[in-house]
Amino acid sequence: MSESLSTIAAPLAWPLAIAVAWLAGELGHRWLSLPRVSSYGIAGFFMAESQGGFLMVPSGSTIPLLADFAFSLMLFELGFRINLRWLRADPWLGVTSVVEAAATFSAVFLLAQFFAVPMMSALLLAALSMSTSPAAVVRVVNELKSSGQVTERLLHLTAFNCVLAVVVFKMVLGYWILASAGSLFHAAWNSLMVVAVSAGIGVLFGVAVPVLLRSIGAVGRNATVAFAIAALLLTALTLVLNFSPLLAALVFGLVARHRRVIFSQAQNNFGALGDLLSVLLFVFVAASVEWKQVVDGAELALAVLGVRLVVKTLSTTLFARLSGITWRKGALTGLAMTPMSVFVILLLEHSRHLDLGSFEQVAGIAAIVIILEVAGPILTRRALVWAGEARR
Amino acid sequence: MPLEPFKASRSLTMGVELELQLVNLTDFDLTALAPDLLHLLSLRNFPGDVKPEMTESMIEVSTGVHARHDELLAQLSDIRDVMVVAGDRLNIALCGGGTHPFQHWVEQHIFAKPRFEQLSLLYGYLAKQFTVFGQHVHIGCASADEALYLLHALNRYVPHFIALSASSPFLQGVDTLFDSSRLNSVYAFPLSGRAPFLLDWSEFEHGYFAKMENTGVVKSMKDFYWDIRPKPEFGTIELRVCDTPLTIERAAALAAYLQALCRMLLERRAPPPVEDDYLVYNYNRFQACRFGFDGLIVHPRTNESIGLRDDILATLRELEPHAAALNSVPALSELHRAVAYEGNHAGLLRRLFAREGGVEGMVDAAVRLFRGDRPS
Question: Residue A1: how many CA atoms within 13 Å on its side-chain side?
């Protein structure tokens, strides 16, 4: 009896979890003005098996693929909003980006040393801390329909620090492989080559898809579905080959933009498809985290979050006036850059094949992820509202 | 507050105000970046004046007072260059055109300033729908009575300015078939339209303005959204029917056309204006908005039906000596080219739409025109 019940219940778990999380998102938004994605995370965490809930995180099923696909759509959209020519018009934007990423890496690394975290783990933690998660940023910006300099700079700095974080993360992995296995080829392949080939796949898609769309005369309304299908294909391809779907999707968006295909506003977020998949993504990420890991790393996590927030905010404030914005908007840009959960979880997931043992190897990361899954979007939302950039 | 005294200024001097669109470079929709742009511009010397407008995706620039077209154009060009560089620093583009072709008015942010917030409360959705972009031209007048004379003598030429400046064929993503759809948005306001027919300033001041003020409907001249209105504190009349053109060259040429017309009218060779001139006013205005140069207008005195294109061409010929005297021949030549051969900017936008295959590509092309790149 109980066996047949579980046979029936198992396939129901994810659809039910998505329904519960969505409802939590709507109620949290209405009653507490919470960003919807924060509530998805809370719901996901408590429904997870490791917290006594009913939700298993299946490896090897289609759920992780769908989560990656959801994230690829967001990264594509982020890449699409990045204007590289801006770096020429405002060189201080580039300086801000490099400084905030480098300073975050250094500060978190030193802090981890202070907490006596092993070298490898400290390096990985520092690399991951550089990034701002595009998922929370893109969702909150779209939810508020915000526009202004904090919004624009937030999106650009997020895209840049993600690229920097992936590159540094892969370098650290390469170093680790070299140190542990002694194989230079293996090390180079898993760092330099993964970065280069993933970006190359993104470029290929960014060039080929617009050409294809133009040749079949489908630039207008059909582009949303076409880009979504391309993102799905790209995600599956990079996952199968053990490359980085994150980097590939971001580069895909970036190149497609600069190929002058215009993605009209009605298609923000990839419409209902993007909305649905984002529920799944945020539930998936929160459900990957175990309560025990959170408690174990809480102290380090809070210290890292504090340092990261201060360093990012200081960096963006320092160059604010040089970039032609107010100190206040500079500081709010730094505050808005707090989220990092989704990006970190998926980046670690993609390194599983290296027997890194992912979470366990990176001290404190589980606690960081779960705190920021909830707090990150809230801070981004507050920053945009305080900047007066949300729609009134 | 009673009407300010009319401050006399040098006759036939001119100044231009342009309301410009702030457009994001990703999907070419309007973007609420006026506060950031104003902050950046406040850090440097601006070659003119810059002000916020009703919604945060609009910005208004204005020139100083000029007697010559070339000097006006030079200042507009400096203003444009500073704005373009500032826009690049903030990752936004500036664009001309009387309407943004596909913005959703619901999405606009009202600029946080008491006057705009009051207007937004009073007018409701009309305030956000007023996210349209006009060019205002001021002409200096030696006296208040001269101002009222010119204001009414110009009535028959108002359709010329509508057709010459028209650059708002698209609204909410569709071709309205109007060359200037913007003026339809202005018309929704209760105090829009034409000024009352009064030629004597003291009568205007005491017999009209003071009474209107007593009704509580208006507090200052700013509350009137007339096609042409007197501006006592500047000592000017202000023509407000023009769409913001796609280029600053066209904007300067329109000012020069008005300057030359006023010079001709001040010779007072034509019969003085009368109230009955306004019988055909709204009809002619509609024809110009709807059909541009192809409109058919009715001459207020002869009741003859005339093509607007022919009427403008005839007027340009009449203005030749005045343009020569005012050193604005190149400006009138530009307008002549538009009327006789090239068409107005509404036509140009429609061609860009067809070429680019969509409204976003059309805005992209219009952005490049405003920057001063020639159409490819």
Answer: 0
Q: Which residues of A touch B357 (CB under 8 A)?
A: 219-220
Tell me the chain A residues in contact with residue B112 when contact means C-beta distances shorter than 8 Å: 388
Are the Cβ atoms of A263 and B27 closer than 8 angstroms? yes
Contact A262 B358 (CB under 8 A): yes
Which tens digits make up the pLDDT trace of A186-216?
777 778 888 899 999 999 999 998 888 878 7
A59 has pLDDT over 70? no
Q: Closest to A86 (Cβ–Cβ): which among B86, B91, B361? A: B91
Model pLDDT, residue A207: 92
Smallest CA–CA separation between A32 and chain B, in Å?
23
Q: Do B26 and A257 touch (CB under 8 A)?
A: yes
Q: State the nearest Cα–Cα gap between A86 and chain B, in angstroms.
A: 6
CB B372 within 8 A of CB B80: yes
Report the C-alpha gap between A212 and A219 in whole angstroms.
Answer: 9
Query: Domain ranges in chain A?
Result: 64-386
> What's the mean pLDDT in A10-30?
90
Q: How far apart are CA A361 and CA B178, in angstroms?
A: 66
Interface A:B, Cβ pairs < 8 A = 70
Beta-carbon count within 10 A of B2 CB:
10
Angle (CA) A210 A146 A259, round 5°: 15
Instruction: State residue B296 phi and psi, 5-degree precision.
Output: -110, 115
Assigned CATH for B14-371: 3.30.590.20
| Interchain contact, A262 vs B33, CB within 8 Å | no
Residue-level pLDDT at B257: 98
Q: Work out the number of other CB atoms within 10 angstroms of the CB of residue B269.
A: 7
Question: Using 50, 70 and 90 to split pLDDT, how confident is the model at B194?
Answer: very high
Distance from CA of A81 to the nearest CA of B (A): 6
Q: Is the model's pLDDT at A2 over the cut of 60?
A: no
DSSP state of B124: T
The DSSP bridge pattern shows strands B192-193 and B225-226 to be: parallel
Burial readout B50-82 (b: 16 or more C-beta within 10 A, e: otherwise): bebbbbbbbbbbbbebbeebebbbebbeebbeb
Q: Where are the domains of chain B?
A: 14-371
Of B29, B90, B109, the CB nearest to A391: B109
Strand partners, B19: B60
pLDDT at A265 exceeding the cut of 50: no
Tell me the average pLDDT across B27-32: 89
DSSP A31-69: HH---HHHHHHHHHHHHBGGGTSSB---SSSHHHHHHHH
Could you give the maximum distance between any two Cα atoms of chain B, in Å?
56
Q: What is the mean pLDDT of chain A?
A: 87
Q: What distance in Å separates residue A148's CA from the closest CA in chain B?
A: 5
- Provide the whole-model pTM: 0.90
Calculate how close chain B gets to A391, using CA atoms only, in Å: 6
Phi, psi of B216 (to 5 degrees): 85, 0
**Best residue of B55, B89, B362 to probe chain A, by most A CBs closer than 10 Å:** B89
Kindly list the residues from chain B whose CB atom is less than 8 angstroms away from the CB atom of residue A86: 88, 91
Helix, strand, or coil (residue A217): coil
Find which of A147, A267, A319 to mutate to test the B interface (most B CBs within 10 Å of its CB).
A147
CATH code for the part of the protein at A64-386: 1.20.1530.20
